[in-house]
């Protein structure tokens, strides 16, 4: 099947012959270079799902391959070197699962799976297995076994010596004789996609298993590019930071549809379960205009598990010593030839009311329950039409505040301080795509999403209730101009938001914001060494009028293993000052909105606009005969307008439009290598310079570390043991002045350097390696901020402040859990 697919994709106009040999994985071409370029042929093959030389097929095209054809992905697009068979028994001769496929080749050279072939080790005839409907088999290997006996009715049985027990084994029947063919290739848990014009870092499901990853906010613990911090000391909300900017400047999408945004952004990271995630794609700087105009620091796209290729059942249970329990259940089912469906469920319980590391009388984490679920459907007719649709639901009910706070008797009184959330979010989505059969490069797609978000909450004596309805539609068409060296995408989109916020009892902020526009994007790829993507979109905002979003991404790979990238572009967004700054609600600070009419448009403030420019260099190499890579990247973000959040007066929090400059500079270096077999190491260092002109003068961004060091060590053995260790060293942070407070409620002007360590060990069991037990610890240094809340003894007084959180809120934590799946 691979042979037919590859040869068909290669036979473009100007190609006289194309023959792929499964025994050596080589494609033999005869073509007229005046009529077709070699790079064009390679790109056509990659577009149907097969990695070729230094071109990596997209994840979407690879996912469409038959199970029999799902080869191990190439690591970085390079043709893997022929490996000598190690003589050390420890490298290959140990218990693990050998995977392979049995196929038959006819006179025309076509391959098809052999179903029901019998396989067993010559040393152990009683333990056998059969190839499934796709010809795929799995067989447990024992030490000293390397001779595989394969038989099938009507064919001559044979005993095959397996040369490399860690590679996929391909057994081909031709003329009733069975023989082995080696298939090479590996894929790391996280990698940089070398062929995308924008620098795209991909975190695979394997990477997410390195930590508990109960939800999306915890999925970046082993990543150096993204920080996840607690937004304040009492609400439990998490916020991501990238390039030194708050997460509100990073566009969060789920399968390229809008993720939790607007009012849902503070607690949105908690609503996406880690076990739902297939991969996470992190793109720094500006992205494609096809994804909208809001990306300012970058884009994080989350790919959920697909109904057509995920496990039929996946179960995860997690518990930690702080009283948190998570239960996850994924179910998927194929319904006939064209339909498939899945249900993804996540339930989080937290009932430990007395968890309080700083002994200030306040719960470190609100207690309660969060439930979320997804039901999605997929239809494929095999003729180019694909339809996906589904619904998502979230219910989050939590209570925080003082340890002895009782909602029934203390809510709305000064008896004890408490806070609570009652959140419900319902979302529907659909994606309709059609690939023209006569031209696989031409396609049209429609993306649709709609949601309703409702939040009822209180913070001591303050009430905050909010509601948001969102509707989104995006129409895309893409094609080539002559050859694949010239591609283009055009489309139109509309985004509708209806906000209704009540602050205290008398301040009602309402707005309807509709942004509609069109975009065009051109990609120039004259060779495999160079790509240029130029995009432009024009939008009309019903509140602020017309605005233009230009973007440019460049990639240049002068020699194998070296890649240069550059990007530049504009982003724009509208701030939601209450939802994005929960400390405003939880503290005694006086809220000031400095605008002529706070009820006009969006709090009377102008939209935020910035320009982002970045460069990056990635170098792949070999050290001690093993793959390694190094990277350096620099990004500069400059705001032409920003809604400044000013904490410089300890008694106030002010919001106003920027008058002056606000910018961020981010420099990051990273080195990855394998010092020993099965052992991956990642080292990173990041330097940030983020400054804003406040009304009191230019200052660095508060509560942000200028320096950060990162180390991740991962060991994965075929016996099923996995170990992971992560070290983060965080430099000092500037703390806004508290000199106007009484002495007992003052803080130093700068925090201390601290280090946190996380570690996890897991063991996989079972014939199919489908049962895993894991045990881990977070913040093993037990370092936490001793005074996360100012004036905790006077929560209804003038100096109560939960916003000065610069370090970990909780100390050492241990957890354990189990995973189980059925293919």
Task: Characterize the structure shown.
- The protein is mostly beta strands and 823 residues long.
- 5% of the residues lie in helices and 53% in strands.
- The chain contains eight helices and 46 strands.
- It has a 22-stranded antiparallel beta barrel. A six-stranded mixed beta sheet has the order 12-13-19-20-17-18.
Q: What would the principal axes of the Cα set say about the shape? A: globular
Strand content: over 45%
Share in helix: under 10%
Count of DSSP-assigned helices: 8
Amino- and carboxy-terminal Cα gap: 22 Å
Uncertain segments are: 75-92, 181-186
What's a concise summary of this model?
With 823 residues, the protein is mainly β.
Output the keywords:
22-stranded antiparallel β-barrel, globular, transport, 823 residues, mainly beta, 6-stranded mixed beta sheet
Record the SSE blueprint.
Elements lengths: L1 H9 L4 E7 L4 E6 L6 H10 L11 H5 L25 H4 L3 E10 L5 E3 L4 E4 L2 E7 L5 E6 L5 E5 L6 E4 L6 E7 L2 E7 L6 E4 L6 E5 H4 L18 E4 L7 E5 L2 E2 L3 E5 L2 E2 L6 H4 L8 E8 L13 E7 L8 E8 L3 E12 L3 E12 L16 E14 L4 E17 L5 H4 L7 E18 L7 E17 L2 E20 L1 E21 L3 E21 L2 E12 L3 E12 L5 E12 L8 H5 L3 E4 L14 E16 L2 E16 L1 E4 L5 E6 L4 E15 L2 E16 L2 E4 L6 E10 L4 E10 L23 E12 L5 E8 L34 E10 L1
Parallel strand pairs: 3-10, 17-20, 34-38
Antiparallel strand pairs: 1-2, 3-4, 3-7, 5-6, 5-8, 8-9, 10-11, 12-13, 13-19, 14-15, 15-16, 17-18, 19-20, 21-22, 21-46, 22-23, 23-24, 24-25, 25-26, 26-27, 27-28, 28-29, 29-30, 30-31, 31-32, 32-33, 33-35, 35-36, 36-39, 37-38, 39-40, 40-41, 40-42, 42-43, 43-44, 44-45, 45-46
């Amino acid at each position: 099947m691979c042979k037919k697919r590859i040869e068909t994709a290669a036979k473009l106009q100007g190609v006289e012959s194309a023959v792929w040999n499964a025994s050596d994985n080589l494609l033999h071409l005869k073509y007229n270079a005046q009529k077709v370029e070699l790079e064009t042929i390679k790109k056509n093959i990659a577009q149907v799902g097969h990695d070729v030389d230094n071109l990596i097929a997209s994840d979407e095209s690879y996912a469409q391959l038959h199970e029999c054809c799902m080869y191990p992905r190439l690591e970085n697009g390079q043709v893997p070197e022929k490996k000598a068979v190690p003589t050390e028994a420890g490298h290959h001769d140990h218990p693990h699962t050998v995977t392979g496929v049995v196929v038959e080749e006819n006179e025309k050279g076509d391959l098809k799976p052999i179903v029901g072939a019998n396989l067993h080790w010559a040393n152990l005839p009683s333990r056998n297995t059969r190839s499934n409907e796709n010809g795929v088999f799995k067989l447990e290997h024992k030490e000293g076994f390397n001779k595989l006996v394969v038989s099938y009715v009507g064919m001559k049985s044979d005993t095959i010596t397996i040369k490399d027990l860690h590679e996929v084994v391909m057994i081909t029947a031709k003329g009733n004789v069975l023989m082995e063919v080696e298939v090479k290739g590996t894929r790391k848990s996280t990698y940089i996609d070398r062929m995308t014009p924008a620098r795209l870092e991909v975190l695979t499901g394997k990477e997410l298993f390195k930590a508990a990853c109960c939800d999306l906010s915890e999925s970046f613990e082993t990543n150096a590019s993204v920080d996840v911090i607690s937004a304040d000391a009492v609400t439990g909300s998490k916020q991501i930071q990238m390039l030194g900017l708050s997460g509100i400047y990073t566009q969060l999408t789920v399968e390229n549809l809008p993720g939790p945004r607007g009012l849902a952004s503070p607690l949105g990271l908690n609503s996406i379960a880690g076990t739902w995630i297939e991969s996470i794609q992190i793109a720094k700087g500006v992205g494609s205009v096809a994804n909208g105009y809001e990306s300012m620091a970058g884009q994080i796209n989350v790919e959920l598990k697909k109904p057509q290729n995920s496990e039929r059942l996946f179960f995860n249970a997690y518990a930690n010593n702080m009283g948190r329990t998570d239960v996850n259940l994924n179910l998927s089912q194929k319904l006939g030839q064209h339909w498939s469906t899945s249900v993804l469920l996540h339930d989080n319980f937290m009932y430990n009311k007395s968890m309080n590391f700083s002994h200030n009388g306040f719960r470190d984490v609100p207690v309660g329950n969060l439930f979320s679920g997804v039901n999605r459907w997929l239809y494929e007719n095999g003729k180019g039409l694909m339809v996906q649709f589904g619904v998502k639901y979230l219910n989050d009910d939590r209570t925080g505040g003082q340890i002895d706070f009782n909602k029934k008797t203390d809510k709305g009184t000064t008896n004890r301080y408490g806070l609570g959330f009652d959140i419900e979010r319902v979302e529907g989505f659909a994606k309709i795509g059609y690939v023209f059969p006569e031209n696989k490069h031409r396609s049209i797609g429609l993306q649709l999403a709609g949601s309703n978000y409702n939040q009822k909450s209180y913070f001591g004596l303050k009430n905050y209730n909010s509601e948001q309805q969102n509707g989104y539609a995006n129409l895309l068409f893409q094609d080539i101009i002559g050859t694949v060296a010239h591609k283009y995408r055009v489309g139109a989109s509309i985004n509708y938001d209806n906000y209704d916020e009540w602050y205290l009892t008398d301040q009602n902020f309402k707005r309807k914001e509709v942004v509609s526009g069109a975009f065009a994007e051109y990609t120039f790829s004259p060779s495999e060494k160079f790509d240029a993507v130029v995009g432009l979109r024009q939008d009309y905002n019903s509140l602020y009028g017309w605005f233009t979003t230009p973007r440019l991404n460049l990639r240049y790979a002068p020699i194998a293993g070296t890649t240069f990238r550059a990007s530049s572009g504009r982003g724009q967004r509208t701030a939601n000052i209450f939802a994005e700054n929960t400390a405003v609600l939880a503290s005694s600070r006086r809220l000031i909105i400095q605008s002529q009419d706070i009820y006009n448009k969006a709090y009377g403030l102008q939209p935020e606009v910035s320009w982002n420019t970045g460069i990056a260099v990635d170098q792949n190499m070999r050290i001690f005969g093993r793959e390694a890579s190094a990277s350096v990247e620099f990004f500069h973000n400059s705001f032409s307008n920003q809604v400044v959040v000013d904490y410089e007066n300890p008694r106030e929090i002010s919001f106003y439009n920027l008058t002056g400059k606000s910018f961020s500079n981010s420099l990051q270096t990273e080195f990855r290598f394998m010092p020993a077999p099965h052992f991956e190491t990642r080292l990173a260092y990041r330097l940030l310079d983020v400054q804003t002109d406040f009304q009191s003068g230019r200052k660095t961004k508060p509560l942000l570390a200028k320096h950060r060091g990162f180390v991740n060590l991962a060991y994965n053995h075929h016996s099923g043991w996995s170990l992971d260790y992560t070290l983060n060293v965080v430099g000092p942070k500037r703390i806004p002045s508290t000199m106007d407070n009484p002495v007992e409620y003052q803080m130093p002007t700068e925090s201390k350097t601290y280090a946190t360590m996380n570690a996890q060990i897991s063991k996989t069991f079972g014939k199919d390696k489908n049962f895993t037990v894991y045990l881990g610890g977070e913040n093993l240094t037990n370092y936490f901020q001793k005074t996360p809340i100012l004036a905790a003894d006077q929560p209804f007084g003038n100096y109560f402040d939960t916003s000065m959180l610069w370090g970990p809120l909780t100390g050492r934590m241990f957890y354990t859990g189990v995973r189980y799946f059925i293919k």
